[in-house]
Amino acid sequence: MVSERALPTCRLINATLESELGVDNQIGATLGKVYCGIVGGVERHEFAVLGPSVNLSARLMAQKNHPGVLVDNEVRLKAKKLNFIKFPSVKAKGYVDLVPVFKPLTAKETRWGKVNAKYVGRKKEMETVCSLAVEMSRAECKSNMFFLWGESGAGKSSFVVHTIVRVRKELFLKKKRPIITRNVCCECDTLVPFSVFRSIFRDVLSEKPIDDEASFASRGTNSLFGKGWDNKSFSSMSTNDCETTSVISRLHEICEELNAPEGFLGIVGHHLLGNSNLKMASVKKAPELDDIVAFMAEVFIRSTRHAEVIILALDDVQWMDNLSWKVVRNIFERSTNVLIVCCSRLIEDIPLTMDKDFWEMLNGKYRDSNLYYETYIGALEKSEVREMAALTLKCKPEDISDKYINDVYMHSGGMPYFASEILESCLRKNLCKRNADNKIGWRQHRRNSQEGLHYTNLNELLLLRIDNLDDLTRKALHFASVLGASFELQEIVEISGHILCIPEEEKEQHSLAIKTSLEAAVEEGILDVTVQDESDVDEEHSKISMMMIKVDCSDGQIHKYLPRRKYSFYHSTWRRLILSMLLDSWKRDIHKHAAMAIEARSPDPETRDYRTKVKLFQHWKDSEDTLKAADFALDIGQSFKMLGLNLHSIKIYDDALEMWRKHKPSKSEDTIGGFAPDVLDSLDEGNLVYLIKLLTMFGQAVGSTSKRIDQNRSARTFEDALNILRFSPASAQIKDRAFIFPIYSGMFFLLKYKVDVSYSEEDLIKNFVQETKMHGDPVHYGRALAMQGETYHRNGHFDNAIKSHIELKQVYDVDKHHSLVVASYASDRLGQNFGCTANCYMRLNQTGKAMEVVYTIINKLMPKMDPKNVHNSIATIYPAIWILKDNGKSDEARAIFVKYVLEPFREFYGEDGATPFKPSFRGLEALLDIVLYMEGVESDLNGSYSEWALDLHNLDVPMGLEIAIGTFGRSPMSINAEVCLRLSKLSDDPEIKARLLENGIIVAERALSGCDGSDGSSRLLTTYCQIKPVYDELKKLSE
To answer: Which keywords describe this protein according to UniProt (predicted)?
Structure first.
């Protein structure tokens, strides 16, 4: 009751009085016998509570430097599952001796970890961190990073715990205001975007905001925010403002103040903080990834800027995802007075996911500037192991025999955790005593016995401790090891109830038994426990009542409450060892029931955050339910893709494919598409379909990058998918083959970037047309015909391209099919074929028919298309713009460009938005304005165009984009070259004219090399015909 109700109530009262009423308050909580009743006389009396513990609580309440809640030793002893830190003892009425005083740690502070009284060593490293923290607290300075490397068992986590305690103590003595937050990463975090900031954001957003601007006087103004912003934020955070009472309302407040990117609350509130009420609603566009990263850093900085130093401790960062590293980098580079402490396994064993350039800057620029420090911790010195033994045995170091220390050191290798376990085991089994030489050493009759130290290895020692536990505790640990490095009591209760087939009438008793079993594991030092973080609780419910989980019995009544607790393995060695004991079939069964339990608790897929989805995927995968795991992987990957998290999509798809890839072929066999022939032979229809879908999505995700190596990998993946379809027996059973159409579309996309694909364009398109025609869906058949027409156009077969378009017109209805085509292929490839056809008519000198198609695009297609899909809009009207311009209708060309591209892009995406055609926007707008000015339609010309064109960097475009955009009829660098040509004609300054001509020739030559027309071929002939006259005139004027 003390842990679960009394102390949380004290903390809640303390926090609520401060946040809602602005009342500074101090609470003293004690336990003891008291008199409770009426005191006084007949006419004057009162109801009172009297006794020594009452006096003590009043004394605690009045202590100086009060942290909010202080308790006595009786409370600490009753609250065994909570952590405390000691405060100076006090003298109180009714007590003979000084009374010990303690501060109960919050869930956040408990997450820092428990202090080990037997911790030794690492003094130099700890002094470095403490000195940095104290120095940074004295004045505003750039943020620092400290990296600690070490192998498993070296004591990295213990180092963080004890360093936090020491830093906190030193800062407290110097009357400094620190904010300290710690996160321990786990293995599955690499698949969860921004995983490390789940607990960190809760910590910093729950910090009491400062509403007195004077409190910042000594710190200056943060460069990220201006004075006007400060005034606004301080006024909105008055103590009477009830919106500051919860993490979510605080997040809302900051988002409004800083004008958060659209969709930010959905990602951070729902997916990061786990509040399903904040799941991302329908927005005009997905938020830009860089905006989200930068804004998360700003929220952290804004929420912590009142502190004089901020300690951000990140443990096991080898599991940290790439996006979390991006936010950490933003905080490191843009904040002040933040000390980031990272602990990791050796980088040679598990590479970090941080960006390569940031790692290089840390080890170069930032190390040279004394902003980055790193050190390696390995085995302890033998003298330090002796010191640890003395603390364990409660004696002086010199009282322990050398033989005893040598044996412990040899078997532990000097690794702190292993040495600690051996020493504790020896003490528990009473294997040592003070011998005749007055030295503590082995009991001679036990030293070499089965109970002695000479096990084969440390694992055997730990296994014996596990074997000594009762059957239910061992089973609970089995379930826990499968669930992960951390888990909740509720999860173990649910899973064990299902697997062990506990009857309804026995569930209450079983739940209590599981709780007792886990407590036994805690006492044994296998598990660690904390009361569930209050911030996990729904803000609409009482924190106190929701810190309990219900046990429902057969009659539907709630008979009992269990504390809502979160457990974790004290050290990864325990989990690894327990997992190694389990049969694979037993593990699969546990994973299956774990997934079922999560789905039962969260039945609505829309309310599941990324962490929950990834957990479900991992459990179904490890249960070897490939269909469910693949379905979750596709859903998660698609969600990541919509948010621009392409690397996370690739990771999840690759992880899912490993379900089939892990089965290796025999030495005499070759793989087919990367998979063993036996695996493909055994696939049923459902598994084959999911395998192909995963390969397709993986190929699309990899191919969407601009790197040639990734595009080649994408091509190989698509080819593997087709090969698997050809060789797998289950392929013949598939009736609906629509899922393979994106493969053809993806390979065609790569061919436009001149990526080598083993299939010829002709065969690829032929197969695609045949497959889609048999399927009968006009969306896919139309896409195949559009692809065919585009290929004919690119290769100069204009008549055939027009025939394909005529066939396409018979199946395509913009009203019916536009949204369906976009859903399958991201943009309306069928509508875009009209522009391709117009280009074909121009190449055949049939200008009248070309103009008819152009006005069909403008008057019939564009009004029916989604204006938010700006990429589709520009791809559809792009050929029309150049045909209009070349036929003296530049004003109409500019009008449709502004209406369907520039204005929607600025409205829905903003100036900093992105789309593949964006490199052409500036040059296209400039060229049309210049043409209209030279034709006398416009009287003024934007003077910035000349300045823009004089910078060659503005005119250059990556060759991949140059070629891809060029397939639509004109390349970006050909546009920029014409801008230079026309501006040179308008300039009276010889030097500027020469520079413009020089820049124009450079980009024109690059544009020519990208369209292949210069060698006499007809490939990208339309693009060649646009740039060649411009290039010739530039060369002529420059002579």
So the answer is: ATP-binding, Nucleotide-binding
- More confident: 1001 or 641: 1001
Secondary structure class of 523 (helix, strand, coil): helix
Helical (H) or strand (E) element with 231 = helix 227-236
Q: How many domains does the chain have?
A: 4
Same domain, 372 and 397: no
What contacts 315, CB < 8 A, 6 or more positions away?
156, 157, 160, 182, 183, 184, 185, 343
DSSP state letter for 397: G
Stretch 1000-1005: mean pLDDT: 95
- The first and second tokens of residue 914, run together, are 């992105």
266 band by pLDDT with thresholds 50, 70 and 90: low
**Would you say residue 223 lies in a domain?**
yes
Cα–Cα distance, 438 to 824 (Å, whole number): 82
Residue 237, pLDDT above cutoff 60: no
Instruction: Locate 598 and state its tokens.
Output: 């999560």
pLDDT digits (tens, 9 = 90+) for 836-890: 999 999 999 999 999 999 999 999 999 999 998 999 999 999 999 999 999 999 9
Q: What are phi and psi of 259, to 5 degrees?
A: 55, 65
Question: Which pTM does this prediction carry?
Answer: 0.74
Confidence of residue 296 (pLDDT cuts 50, 70, 90): confident
The range of the structural domain enclosing residue 449 comes to 382-454
8 A C-beta contact, residue 83 and residue 40: no
Write out the E strands in 388-526.
Answer: 432-434, 440-442, 486-488
pLDDT of 478 strictly over 90: yes
Q: Are residues 262 and 147 in the same domain?
A: yes
Position 113 scores a pLDDT of 66
| 35 in the same domain as 132 | no
> What's the rounded Cα separation, in Å, for the pair 72 and 103?
9
pLDDT at position 582 is 94
Q: Give the CATH number, domain containing residue 23.
A: 3.30.70.1230
Cα–Cα distance, 456 to 153 (Å, whole number): 18
Query: What single DSSP character describes residue 903?
Result: H
Is the separation of the CB atoms in 671 and 210 below 8 Å? no
The model's pLDDT over 797-806, given as tens digits with 9 standing for 90+, comes to 999 999 999 9
Other Cβ atoms less than 10 A from the Cβ of 169: the count is: 12
The residues, ordered by sequence, that sit 6+ positions from 121 with a Cβ below 8 Å of its Cβ are: 155, 380, 381, 384, 387, 416
**What are the distances in angstroms from CA 758 to CA 701, 725, 751?**
20, 16, 10
Answer yes or no: do 997 and 859 share one domain: yes
Mean pLDDT of the chain: 84
Does some domain include residue 961? yes
Tokens coding 500? 């062990």
Answer whether 760's CB lies under 8 Å from 738's CB. Answer: no
Specify the amino acid at residue 417: Y
Token pair recorded at residue 345: 């396994």
CA 358, chain centre distance (Å):
17
pLDDT at 537: 39
Structure tokens at 272: 């990061």
Using the 3D structure, point to which of 408, 423, 454 is the last residue of a domain: 454
Q: Are strands 548-552 and 558-563 parallel, antiparallel or unpaired?
A: antiparallel
100 phi/psi in degrees, rounded to 5: -65, 140
Reference 572, options 288, 127, 151; nearest CA is 151
* 51-76 per-position pLDDT tens digit: 899 999 999 998 877 888 999 989 98
What pLDDT, on the 0 to 100 scale, is given for residue 238? Answer: 31
Structural domain ending residue among the three candidates 420, 454, 488: 454
- The pLDDT of residue 223 is 34
Residue among 245, 339, 261 at smallest CA distance from 296 = 261
Nearest residue to 821 (alpha-carbon basis) of 774, 767, 861: 861
Question: Position 789: which residue type?
Answer: G
d(C-alpha 197, C-alpha 309), whole Å: 19
In the chain, count of helices (H) and strands (E)?
47, 18
Checking if the pLDDT of 145 tops 90, the result is yes
* Domain match, 73 and 195 both: no
Per the listing, tokens 């004295």 go with 138
